Amino acid sequence: MSGTLSINSFNNVVIRSVAPTITTIAVSGVRQSKQLAAQYWEMDLEYAALTRADFARVMGFISKQRVGFGDFEMIIPEISRPAGDIRYIYTNVTPQTMVATAEADAGDSYVDFDTGFQSTFFTNNGYDNTQGLVAGDFIRFTNHDKVYQLTEDVTFDVNGAGRLNLFPNLVEGVNLNETIQFYDVPFKVYLKTQTQDFAYNAERQSTISLQVRESLL
Q1: 63-110: per-residue pLDDT in tens?
Q2: Tally of domains in the chain
Q3: Same structural domain for residues 150 and 99?
Q4: What is the rounded average pLDDT for all residues in the chain?
Q5: Are strands 161-167 and 147-150 parallel, antiparallel or unpaired?
Q6: Which residues, including other chains, have CB under 8 Å from residue 141's CB and lie 6 or more apart?
Q7: Which residues, 6+ apart, have CB-to-CB distance to 13 below 8 Å?
């Protein structure tokens, strides 16, 4: 099982952050909250009209996962790519790798990084190096599958270095020189349901909607 869902021409995407929490309120009105489980992402994905061949390929891929039994990776249009200005620098300048410049432990809320994208790459091309990546962009480390969201805009300094502030806190430590994925970030997911509908009618119109949840294995 596993693999990557190659057909991702979604017409509509809903992404939600789930952090299972219990909250109690005392007689005094004081609120106490405790997170019960790790944060994860869920997505509702609706395909645009597919060709008959692509429709069959999606069906075959889902069957390969035994519907909700297996997990797989997917890159989500727009969401998997940064909204920050590095999106334009990355596509117009020779792509550069982003790596961690120090070890970070599970539970830490930030990771320092280095790249070849010096601040001048931004400013010389009319972009803002203080918004190279922005709050809300997604990243992933190559040593584990969890996808993190940035909570603050990221500045790229004259050497191409900076700091990533993350949500949630690291679920696993990050090693020195660990590669950080920031462009076409893949989500590892599985189908939430035990059944999956595939609709195709005589007018050659197809309907496929997927409900997936991030896999934290």
Answers
A1: 999 988 999 999 999 999 999 999 998 887 777 899 999 999 999 999
A2: 2
A3: yes
A4: 92
A5: antiparallel
A6: 100, 111, 172, 174, 178, 179, 180, 181
A7: 43, 44, 45, 46, 76, 77, 78, 79
Task: Give, as one character, the DSSP assignment of residue 124.
Answer: T
Amino acid letter for position 77: P
Find, among 136, 43, 13, 123, the residue nearest to 82 by Cα. Answer: 136
d(CA 197, CA 163): 43
The length of the chain is 217
Q: Which domain holds residue 61?
A: 1-80+186-217
Number of neighbouring beta carbons within 10 Å of residue 5: 21
Same domain (yes/no): 165, 208? no
Q: What is the DSSP letter of 185?
A: P
In terms of domains, do 101 and 122 share one? Answer: yes
One-character DSSP codes across 40-83: EEEEEEEE----HHHHHHHHHHHHHTTTTTS-EEEEPTTTTS-S
* Pure H helices in the chain: 52-64, 86-92, 119-123
pLDDT tens per residue across span 25-39: 877 777 887 776 789
